[in-house]
Amino acid sequence: MPPPAKQPNVRVVTLTIDGRDLSAREDETIIEVCRENQIPIPSLCYLEGLSVWGACRLCLVELAGQGRLLAACSTRVTEGMQIQTNTEKLQRYRRTIVELLFAERNHVCSVCVSNGHCELQYMAQKCGVDHVRVPYRQASYPVDSSHEMFRLDHDRCILCTRCVRVCDEIEGAHTWDVMGRGTECRVITDMAQPWGESDTCTSCGKCVQVCPTGALVKQGTSVGEMVKDQHFLPILARRRHAQ
Amino acid sequence: MNLDDLADLAEQYRAIDANVEREVRVCMAASCQSSGAAPVLDALVAGLGESQPACKVKGVGCMGLCSAGPLVSIAHRDGSLEESTIYRDVTADDAADIIASLDGPPVERLRCPTDQPFFARQQKIVLENAGIIDPDSFKGYVAVGGYSALIRALSEMTPADVLREVTDSGLRGRGGGGYPTGLKWSTVAKMPATQKYVICNADEGDPGAFMDRAILESDPHRVIEGMAIAAYAIGANKAYVYVRAEYPLAVERLQTAIRKAKRSGFLGNKIGDTQFSLEVEIRLGAGAFVCGEETALMASIEGLRGQPRPRPPYPAESGLWGYPTLINNVETFANIAPIVREGGEWFASIGTERSKGTKVFALAGTITNTGLIEVPMGTSLRDIIEVIGGGIPGGKAFKAVQTGGPSGGCIPAQHLDIAVDYDSLKTLGTMMGSGGMIVMDETSSMVDVARYFMEFCMTESCGKCVPCRTGTQQMHSILDRLAKSQASRAELALLEELCEVVQATSLCGLGQTAPNPVLSTMRYFRDEYEAKLGDA
Q1: CATH fold of B446-531
Q2: Which residue of B has its CA nearest to A159?
Q3: Which chain B residue lies closest to A92 (C-alpha atoms)?
Q4: What residues pair up with A83 in beta bridges, in sequence order?
Q5: Closest Cα partner for A159 from B320, B457, B473?
Q6: Which CATH architecture does the domain made up of B358-441 adopt?
């Protein structure tokens, strides 16, 4: 008789999220468990299939017995965790963070081709942001329309780096990167040259699809057409991983 | 090599200078050099020439009292610096007088009294060689007992013995966080891995802090020795010193020290004829404050953009290139050799209950004696500022002292009697930080101070996470409007709320502590904020 198959070395843990008892593999993160169980957790930089970035801070949750908040995207579950995902304090923080994002660049939904399909806009509605208390910075960056198919508008960029990660991790081109510090940060193609002159860009358009806002869009599309499709990502990521 | 061999070597090196009766030591650390120490050294060397073989002129590390530089000390054979004569504000023209006085009474007009509290009240462990040995001289370091702790660890102790001594010493990380060093070391030691790394964090960038720079400039071998002992204890064979490129003198001396240590068999393959090998490399930081944060520092060493990543996993588990990594600050490593040499218990007998040993502070701002001091943990702030620092010059009143750099806060006069240690400073809403102290007199505006630190955090934010990137920018603009008496009460309330959000939600320590200077000045000097309101 053959020996019993060796069990994989991953255990299953139980935890509570918003009072619900749940089970999860110990190599899962809180956000993965929440998404599995239809517990809404806001996030802008997290996207299934891409590496964890942990930068938008919208997915912060409270853990019983710990003063410091935890980012759901980068924290693995452990046995007996008691997590709150939507306390009054978290709601207030999320609202402020979304306000800060709106004030940072010139997000004007009425003239944005992503209006109605924008994750930032959706997040503002979800978080109850009906006005922005901090002054708009009114910084203006040039629009890069040099690519024959796509357009980059820094004024709508929230620096989530999904484009950077998808280009590096899925497409394998690493056309995108970030330059600068603080609020002077901006995404760049190659060595900060116009997108249309990039030697590495394969024009695959993955960056456009994963962009949560109207920062990366297809040229010549109307508001109704600029719907982004991100379903390809987990499938591609799994296939890349399997190779 | 065993300890006896090393003792013989030290004896040989001492014998080279056996006929030297007097040493004329010129401080060649960055501060004294910037006020003209190099011409003084040249003039003394030229003046003495070969005429007095019993008198040796040498450049040494920091003597501490930077405000009186360039400093020159005359040490008699076997005399320690404290007992020697120190001359202050020396110029090249004074060299002749100093040389003429060597056999007689000292030059009174240049004399800096060594019995003053600035010298008398210090207790030097980390800085025991600073201002005494030539930092570029390997022989000089070995002659004062250098590398004996490393050889002792390698030849007489197991890694577990070293870990026990460090744990017993109660040493806590001197970079600011105060994490127990022994615990950190044993965590990395316990990680099963084929490869481990040691990193020395010399990316000191807080405004007003220069402890790490001074240690590296004064006694680079001491830091290397500490790193080698750490590598032995945790099982690493590769170490990096991450030092900022703005410290060219420190980098140069460190390079010399690494080269000489390697040539003499204290670094490299089979150190001291044991199975232990260690390569030490220098990595230059391009001057980003965030690269002092350990995960950003590691990204920078890996050649990536210096940005932090979420922790856990901590570097002890997954650090440089995913391998277990030990990161300690310069001063932490500089404490290791004495701990191994004298034992953990000896170290634990110094300081307070929960903060052991001594701490190096950089005194800056409006204070009579600016410079570098080392005092036991638990020394009161009043002692540090009024006695050792000599108080506020110009008859002005003390207002506040800022500790911990942009992550710390301001301590007002009513708390001057607090004993300085990690925990007591935290209760005041500030922190030890790496040890910078900026003293401010009554003319300082606390809103301006908060604005200054917020500007620092804003420009040094790496831009990765939203609250730190744009929150600090908004806070700075409110503080700027406040300083110009243009802000409203509503904006002040918004500032407080932004403080809370940025503190609670930022990704790394830079953002999480960025509001501290604002919060602590608001806590103690709320009236100044109120007085600056535009609609008041």
Answers
A1: de novo design (two linked rop proteins) (1.20.1440)
A2: B464
A3: B501
A4: A17, A63
A5: B473
A6: Roll (3.10)
Comma-separated ranges of CATH 3.10.20.600 domains in chain B: 358-441
For the entire predicted model, the pTM comes to 0.94
Question: Tokens 């918004």 belong to which residue?
Answer: B494
Which regions of chain B carry the CATH code 3.40.50.11540? 146-349
Tell me the residue type at A182. Answer: G
Query: What is the set of domains in chain A, with CATH numbers?
Result: 12-86 (3.10.20.740), 99-235 (3.30.70.20)
Q: Is the dihedral of CA B353, B354, B357, B360 positive or negative?
A: negative
By the 8 A CB rule, do B403 and B432 touch?
A: yes
At the topology level of CATH, where does B18-114 sit? Answer: Glutaredoxin (3.40.30)
**Residue matched to tokens 């001491």:** B222
Mark yes or no for CB contact B473/A133 under 8 Å.
no
- CB-nearest to B470 from A76, A103, A180 is A103
Of 1.20.1560.10, 3.40.50.300, 3.40.50.11540, 3.30.1360.40, the CATH number of B146-349 is: 3.40.50.11540
Of the partner residues B312, B473, B506, the one whose CB lies closest to the CB of residue A182:
B473
* A211 min Cα distance to partner chain B (Å): 16
Judged on CB neighbours under 10 Å (0-12, 13-18, 19+), B464 is: buried
**What distance in Å separates the CA atoms of residue B431 and residue A83, rounded to the nearest whole number?**
30
Over 60: is that where the pLDDT of A238 sits? Answer: yes
pLDDT per residue over B84-109, tens digit each?
Answer: 889 999 999 999 899 888 888 888 89
Percent of chain B past pLDDT 70, that is, above it, reads 98
**Residue ranges of chain B assigned to CATH 3.40.30.10:** 18-114
Task: Identify the closest residue of chain B to A102 by CA–CA distance.
Answer: B470
Phi-psi region of B464 (alpha: psi -120 to 50; beta: other; left: phi over 0): alpha
Residue B78 has a pLDDT of 66
DSSP reduced 3-state for B248: helix
- pLDDT, tens digit, 9 for 90 and up, residues A13-63: 999 999 999 999 999 999 999 999 999 999 999 999 999 999 999 999 999
Q: What is the ipTM of this complex?
A: 0.93
Q: Is B253 helix (H, G, I), strand (E, B) or coil?
A: helix
The number of CA neighbours under 13 Å toward the Cβ of B139 is 7
Comparing CB atoms, the residue among A54, A135, A158 nearest residue B309 is: A54
Is residue B124 over pLDDT 70?
yes
